[in-house]
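Hey, can you fold this one?
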Amino acid sequence: MSESRLHLVPVRSRDAKEFVRLWHRHHPPPAGQIFSLGAADEPNILRAVAVVGRPVARHLDDGTTLEVTRTASDGTRNANSLLYGAAWRAAKALGYRRLITYTQAGESGASLRGAGWRVLAHRPPRPGWHTPSRPRTDRGTSQIARTLWQAP
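Sure. Predicted structure:
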């Protein structure tokens, strides 16, 4: 992995989704987004992306809150922390007042702490999202505890 200096770059939705498809450990690319951004090294090779969209939880979708729905990295040090900080600055510049994200049990949250984010809540594992009134396909997030984070 590259140790050269990182800088922010704009990333088109389709390119961010392809990067997530290639590099994310356990999730597919998110369906939609408000914006995405990337971290590139000095030769301008994309090393990480962040995708920011409307909150997945309907009760948090209040018009002033966004969610980092996915980050993916090739393992370059500090790339995710750079993106979490930049995502919050961009969201604020667009008029949003809150930016959240989740980590799964077993993920340290080091990138989030490095960017100054704080833990808001710990969520217990869910048995799944499928209900008879709203059938859903399992996407690998059932039975996994999560931590809710908020930007500073």
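Helices lie at 13-23, 79-93, 110-114. Let me know if you want another pass with a different chain boundary.
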